[in-house]
Design brief:
26 helices, 728 residues, 0% strand, single chain, mainly alpha
Length: 728
Amino acid sequence: MSTPSNSPAVGFRQALVEWAQSEGMSWAFAFKTLLTIFIALWISYRLELPQPTTVLATVIIVIQPQSGQVLAKSFYRIIGTLMGLTVTICMIALFPQERVLFLLALSCWIGVCTAGAARYRDFRSYAWLLSGYTAAMIGLPASLHPENAFMLAVWRVLEISLGILCSALVSALILPQSSSVPMRRMMHTRFRDFARFACDALAGNLDLERMEQVNARFAAEAVGFDTLRNASAFEDPHIRMRSGRLARLNHEFMVLSTRFNALHQLMLRLQQSSEDGRDVLEVLEPCRAVLGSVLEPLRERLYSDADAEQLAVRLEEVKLELMQSIRDARTRLLLRKPADDRLLDFNTAAELLYRFAGDLHSYALTQASLLQHRHEREQWQENFTPRANNMVILVRGMRTSLLVLALSTFWLATAWTNGPTLVMMAAIVSALVSTAPSPQRLARQLWVGSMGAAIAGCGLQLWVMPLLDGLPLLMCAIAPVFIVGAWIQSKPAIAGYGIGLMLWFCIGAIPLNQPVYDPNKLFNEYLTTIVAIGLAALAASVILPPNRPWLWRRLEHDLRMRVVFAVTGKLKGLAAGFESGTRDLISQAHSLASQRPDVQRGLLRWMFVVQEVGHAVIELRLEQAAMPPEPGYAETMPWQHGVRAMGRALVRLFIEPNEHNRLRALAAVEHAIVVVRKTPESCPPHFETSPLRRVLSYLHFIRSALLDRNSPLAETSPAVVGSLPNAA
């Protein structure tokens, strides 16, 4: 007898599934973390390692909800640890009795590593971080006893390696949560949301605020998707076999969204222009409806790889249907005796529509190819290239280096017994928070977590430890702290509290292999830790903090320089480098300005114009490189000179955006359009067969972007960053 769909049993099962997929994941992570800590602690005591706390600290830093992230993080942690060990041994060998020079070299090395971590957005960043604060963890204790430096370094490496091994095994074997699952979920959800976004835009139902929000999210997801792809390759051989296609899919989605944004911006400009522009939109309505009919069924569900195969077949037919619709629309427009500019508007919009359909077809083919283990589309050599501001990198490295140097000077001047702990904790915290979107917030969370760790650790050492006898009772005593800390760590918004609680609880409260009952030392250690974290938080808030106008100006400048990169960069890998770098920059900017929606909006406006102009320039350059070997397409032709002159004018404009340079760029584009129109061509005058017809469309689109009244380029202030409210 079947159970009714509305019975209590069915409702309970549905609620249980929903809980397991949300809150249950947090508790599963907490259970795995506790189990890993227990295993690592037991092995540490059995092997009589000098500092089991180092093993537990490694577990807390390495452990992640997804097993692929743990494996990737562990791999890079080993690399960073070995690099830090090597450098530390060299520094101790060079300055065995010169503590001042040693601390100077150590602070410089930690600064270099922090700057290196700021360069990347994936686990390579973590390797740099590890090499920095591993040097502090090994070097500072070893500097007090240089004769034992090598053995101390060996013990630390063994302890760190044990923590990595325990984390990797438990994550992979106990309730494994694959990184490939959220990666695929992101892939399907992202395309569904894009289909919904595109349908609304084609129908004219998309407001500016939603457009900005969706594009900011797509930019962040492009960065996150590449990180998940790299992590999944460590754990899943099926993902490893498809890594090239997944990278290609991410790139094609970026191109797809850029193309559609360009199309949407052109449609908005035509809508806001004269009656001629609205006539163009009217005759193009059937063409837009063709694409809308394809995307409409995809807006409400997550489609699979098999669905992508069917979509690719459907798009083959749609491209032919769309081409015929464009020809019919052009015929209707010609009957109205349009002006040359109106016809050029039509040709540009029609080409963007057709190329958008082609990009959509390529994306569907790539996703459909994921059904097969091996496919020719796997041969993809372009990589996601992150882009970081050099000034930001320098500031983050200098901030950490100056903090370590200042505290080292204080230690040497006062001869404080806990000076090494002060320097080491400050170095670790400053390095950890340096790559966070909001270093001040993470440092504050770590500080609050360390306060809780101090209270729990002192309570354990003073009142609970004297009553314990044996490892099982010790595990029972420490379990509540780690359960609570791991559960908090599973919540991204408050993860710092959990990390701080667990990390400094184990460092201060877990007994060494030879336990020492010394309340004064315990109090001093926790006091030193709290002071060190507080100073690191203060440094992050005072020394050129990242959520200030100077950084927004630098990020806006870097966004504008992406157009310069599109004009002057080498063609090989240019499109992928432009798309990934632009999205990485806007993702950083949007995160850093999370408390300033006005600043976010100003930076997003720059992203739109940079993507429009930069993408058009790249495709124009690719078109030039693929010209047939005919006299009309030669490098010496006047239209080629006109296009190059336009490129130089665009470089000047985006380096120094002001009204004078904008007018010069407009004049250069107008001149290029005139000379292209005057150039005779033997090919049929259709954009699928005529290279100069396509060149003309790119030039006209660039001109329309420069003329856009809503673009930040339309502002006449020489310092265009003034468009960011209160940025000065």
